[in-house]
Amino acid sequence: MENGDTVEVNIDYSACMYAAHEVFTFIKQNDTVFLKAHSEINSFENRKQDIQKRVYNFQILGQLSFENYFKYLKKEDKPKTDIH
Questions:
Q1: Contact between 55 and 34 (Cβ < 8 Å)
Q2: How do the residues of the chain divide into helix, strand and coil, expressed in percent and rounded to 5?
Q3: What is the pLDDT of residues 1-22, one digit of tens each?
Q4: DSSP reduced 3-state for 31
Q5: Residue 70 — very low, low, confident or very high, per pLDDT cuts 50/70/90?
Q6: Kind and range of the H or E element at 66?
Q7: Torsion-angle region of 66 (φ positive above 0: left; ψ -120 to 50: alpha; else: beta)
Q8: Which of 21, 26, 60, 68 is the most buried (most CB within 10 A)?
């Protein structure tokens, strides 16, 4: 990311009678990456939550980091092909 860049990650994990989504926004300003988030659940009760912009602390070995999650998807989320 360069200064001034914004990356938005939209996640929709709705199923059947359960509707839910989250939006994570990464913003780089002055060589610092910030994160803000919004989540919304609409099922039998509606709930919303906003996390205000805060510094995103990247941890190389952090299990919940987006970097490690994307590396996992790149490695594991590939179509299985069987030549036999």
A1: yes
A2: 15, 50, 40
A3: 788 999 898 989 888 888 889 9
A4: coil
A5: low
A6: helix 66-76
A7: alpha
A8: 26
Name the burial class of residue 49, with classes exposed (0-12), middle (13-18) and buried (19+) by CB atoms within 10 angstroms of its CB: exposed
Q: How far apart are CA 27 and CA 1, in angstroms?
A: 9
Residues 3 and 55: their CA atoms lie apart, in Å, by 14
Cα–Cα distance between 44 and 34 in angstroms, integer?
33
Model confidence pTM above 0.85: no
Instruction: Give per-residue pLDDT as tens, 10-58.
Output: 989 888 888 889 999 999 999 888 989 999 988 878 889 998 999 887 6
Q: Which amino acid is at 76?
A: E
